[in-house]
Predict the structure.
Amino acid sequence: MYDFNYHRAESVADAAEKIKAAEDGKLVAGGMTLIPTLKQRLASPSDLVDLSGVGDLAGISVDGNTVTIGAMTTHGAVAASDDVKQAIPALAALADNIGDAQVRHRGTIGGSIANNDPAADYPAGCIALGATIVTNTRELSAEDFFVGMFETALEEDEVITAVRFPVAKRAAYMKFPNPASRYALVGVFVAETDGGVRVAVTGAGQDGVFRVAEMETALSGNFTADAIEGISVPDDDLNTDIHASAEYRAHLITVMAKRAVAAAG
Amino acid sequence: MSYTVSMTVNGKAVSGDVEGRTLLVQFLREHLRLTGTHVGCDTSQCGACCVHVNGTSIKSCTMLAVQADGVEVTTIEGLANGDELHPMQAAFRENHGLQCGFCTPGMVMSAIDLVQENPEPSEKEIREWLEGNLCRCTGYHNIVKSIEAGAKAMRGG
Amino acid sequence: MTATGIGAAVKRVEDFRFLTGQGNYTDDIDRPNQTYAWILRSPHAHAKITSLDIGAAESAPGVVAVFTGKDMEAEGVGSLPCGWQVNNKDDSPMAEPAHPPLVIDRVRHVGDQVAVVIAETRDEARQAAEMIVVDYELLPVVMDMAAAIEGGPQVHDDVANNLCYDWHIGDKDATDAAFADAAHVASIDIVNNRLIPNAMEPRAAIGDYDTATGDHTLYTTSQNPHVIRLLMGAFVLNIPEHKLRVVAPDVGGGFGSKIYHYAEEAIVTWAAGKIRRPIKWTAERSESFMSDCHGRDHVTKAELAMDADGKFLALRVGTLANMGAYLSTFAPCVPTYLYATLLAGVYTTPQVYCEVKAVFTNTVPVDAYRGAGRPEASFLLERIVDRAARETGLSQVEIRQRNFIPADAFPYQTPVALQYDSGDYGSTLDQAVTTAEIDGFEARKAEAAKRGKLRGIGYSTYIEACGIAPSAVVGSLGARAGLFESAEVRVHPTGSVTVFTGSHSHGQGHETTFSQLISDTLGIPMESVEIVHGDTGKVAFGMGTYGSRSLAVGGEAIMRATNRIIDKATKIAAHIMEAPEADIEFKDGKFTVAGTDKEMAFGEIALAAYVPHNFPHETLEPGLDETAFYDPANFTYPGGCHICEVEVDPETGVVEVVSFSAVDDVGRVVNPMIVEGQVHGGVAQGIGQALLEGCRYDENGQLVTGSYMDYTLPRAGDLPSFNVGTHATLCAHNSLGVKGCGEVGAIGSPPAVINAVVDALWDLGVKDMSMPATPEKVWQAIQNAQ
């Protein structure tokens, strides 16, 4: 690892200030992706600004039809939250299946979505549920937030403070893990909210998470696995790697989507 | 740049000067000479470096020492009471849950945390929990048995 | 049987230190005034180094020294030696290209060692290594073995067509004649997938030099410190044994990958002498992937000739075996004497002919990995037998029973050099069939079908040769070393015992098993026994641990030394109790005089041995300390039957191992708990090979599976619990009757798993499945068949 200056932010404003002042600063939340990246010497930030001391960034609240999860809330806390389990059980289940137990103890929702790994789980949940990403300066829809592979709409000194999820009528997430890394080879989040039915796919797309409009339309009229039986995503824009070809990923998207629909009930 | 960190490790207050990039596992192994915590990979997957920070298991290869300022750390060296093994350690011995011993400290720390979260885990739950702990010797069979027995012992028999 | 004797499931004595974090692995050791090494490795698979500028690195902060291959060459440092010579069909020796610890002017695989930076800290060494400027002129890369031997780019200029050797065994004419008369021929193409061993402890080495005495010490993660001392001292660094100590302390798993003499050991030992300070090198896991020897990597075509009754007449095999870019220590023997000699398997096949071409490619060297040659042989045989059963309509059990070597046929001479000493393959299969509850399979299959799963069952009845080995035999086969083992049993004056063994434990539990031998034989408590291993400064000599040899060879050496202790103690007892030696009996730790009530405890004799006030010194020396060197008469031949059941999800191609039963004949079992653990571990690695693990390079020679992000190491959730049992026939040529248990799991299991997958898919039209049977591969096979 290359060395860097370390700062512990006192508040969101302090974090934004410190990151702005740094030559090439990086925010660190749980560090579950950033620290391995630094260890591999794939990044060499001048400064690290640690958000872990900003107490009010962690926590879960339910207000009517909205679940708000603080950016520094760990996956483990989301998975264990009775509020989340009751309001959006699919989201708790998604969190409970991210990485391993130790990753879930440190990794956070804010860190995960800020990184926008194309094989991460949360982006699918955020898109399918129609989440709102709240930062220190604005609120964005999940679709505006996730721009492309490892790319988000975040400005350099912008700090995610929370993610707001509408309670779903029904939802489920099905992940087909990469056998080695356990990231999603294909993950499909299917949700029906007041905003309608959405199907979001992670792990498969060359530009990260995406929606499958054809499945959404089919499910809107008939929320059953049969309704999407014949619908497949063209494999042109899907990833190919040693673990799965684009063709196989395309096939898995349909299989996982059907299983998610069946699980959502 | 150098930073002074202080924390409680296995009940003892310790402090030391580290760089920003110093990992918690380096601080434990190289500064404190607590070499029971091992490093088996560089991609945060093998779990040989598992320790408890403020009571829950984390990978000490994926936490900076500066991030651990002010926390309480328990390592494998902090479990036994003299010659008296922690029930989970004893269960690993009783059930041949270790061979070369390299993954063992991380396995034991992870297993204790599992039982804290889930006092009566099923075989399936144990196997799922161990996603972050790799072992190349045992085929996991006896590790699973050890954790079942250790959980029972931790529940009080 | 006593509570700690032979046959007892004694809890391991080594566990306390491992469970309390007090193991002492190489990276746990710090030497005073220690520096750290970072090896600069090649990012290219094949390139000429046109210039190498270390100037900036030398003056970087904290840097103590930077060395290149030319520095080592200038000081006369030799090539890493190969310990086994295989000859070509025409009896000419194999090609043996140079393998310098640091390259001179050409890199031949990604990860090849280019330079070493030594600095005050690890980070400084690594940082400085980035400042070394290397100009590479890229050379064409050869990855495919078939292309390599047909005029592909040359890995070594002095090795034509990249052919290390072209070897064969068996009677070709008789085999061909048998094929001509066959009623049926089954044939199969097999790729035995390349594996990366991945012991959980990454390799490490510390070189230390004592300026006062000129003594070198190397601490290293080795399975055989004496072998490293011999190879490195005599062939690479020219340091005589009495000035070189090699210590292999606690070692975190080996599986073969820590047998070999690696460049880093020579580099830190040599460089420590240069800078006169200790140097520590510890591999990062990503370095392990590209510098630990890989395993397997065979491409094979096999044919089995049968008569009309399904009796095997002949087996004809052609294999390409990947050596990687250089010859590792024991690489040449793996696809020859550890592979082709096993191709008779447990069957009476009268003719076997096998030819093997060993090939250089621009990949990491390949050498023995758990099983080494024997998993390749058993996979080939058990796949082709499975195929033969399906083609002839015989059941998997029936075709095997018809062809087994009968239990009364031992010793049994195979057509491929080996003579099996004992076995009972039919009974072993019967026991496995019972253990696996075969009767219920059809019902289980029907139940799985209701859940949309395809259930299949696979058999494997394998044999292996281990306990390597008779020096005379391996010598005639090209080994440049003997393969005996040494043991010293030192009885202290108060009756406690220290055993010095040349075997090395890196997970096998020798400290327990060997103590059981002593406790059982001398009738003293386990706590009175200490096992010392892994230090050439303490143990006289040793050949180390691999090839499941520790108990059959090392344990037998301990037994011989212990019997010498009893002989000597008997003389002392006879002298003290004033009785003829012939009247002295030793039992349960007591010496008695037949027909009298005179007796002395073992401890009393021990004390007398060191207080020899009235010994007749002409005929009875003081002391009680005996050494034995044991060289076995034959290999040992464990065998067994593995039965696997899988369920395939046809929608996704995911294969789940739902049941795995193993009945192994490992000879006499000293500690059943440890034996079961060894089998579990071996089976897990075998299931890993069958379903999960596969080293992949791209066409440019880049290692694609270079970390756990891409190389699938089996996790707990990938595996079931196992049903394991033993069915012992005793080894006929060692006193313990032991055979070996370290590798059986990895040898027997892969074909059982793949046969089960094929069984699940056969009715869909899937006839074959290569390893690893990944979900996409299985799904694709189903698509192609439909």
Notes: The mean pLDDT of chain C is 97. Residues 484-630 of chain C form a domain with the Aldehyde Oxidoreductase; domain 4 fold (CATH 3.30.365.10). The radius of gyration of chain C is 27 Å. Chain C has 20 helices and 28 strands.
